[in-house]
Amino acid sequence: YVLPELQSGFSFHLSLTRNDTIYIIGGHSIEMNTRPPNFYKIKIDLPIGSPAVNCYVLSEGISVSSAIVTQVKENEFVIIGGYHYDNQKRMICNTINLEDNKIEIVEKEAPEWTPDIKHAKIWFGSDMGNGVILLG
């Protein structure tokens, strides 16, 4: 499927799913070397025959790339880490609450970062499931 809303390339975005909807947040714009506050909602309907795919641009996005997202409740996700810019790590966290017709992204109290995490040039990690992440 070609989605006109997603024609400018970006990488290192976050994605999460709930029911028949995919949400894409943030990312690194390859063309402009920026991290715009992208937020897309891709709804997939599966009627008999061909699927219907619709993409909506939402305005509540945040500027983030290379972060980790984990699901903590059925409708709640947490974004941890990532980058604002190439050389500026994101030391804050956000909670994303997804209701049927309401999406809320709020800043969440960050964990007490260890000196290794605070001063490292890069970091990486993974969602371990059930609201647990691994950072290195």
Automatic annotation (TrEMBL):
InterPro entries assigned: Gal_Oxase/kelch_b-propeller, RAG2
One GO location term (cellular component): DNA recombinase complex
Organism for this UniProt entry: Haemodracon trachyrhinus
Biological-process GO terms, alphabetical: V(D)J recombination
One GO MF term: sequence-specific DNA binding
Signal sequence residues: none
Gene that this sequence comes from: RAG2
Name under which the protein is recorded: Recombination activating protein 2
Source taxonomy: Eukaryota, Metazoa, Chordata, Craniata, Vertebrata
Domain of life: Eukaryota
Pfam families: RAG2 (PF03089)
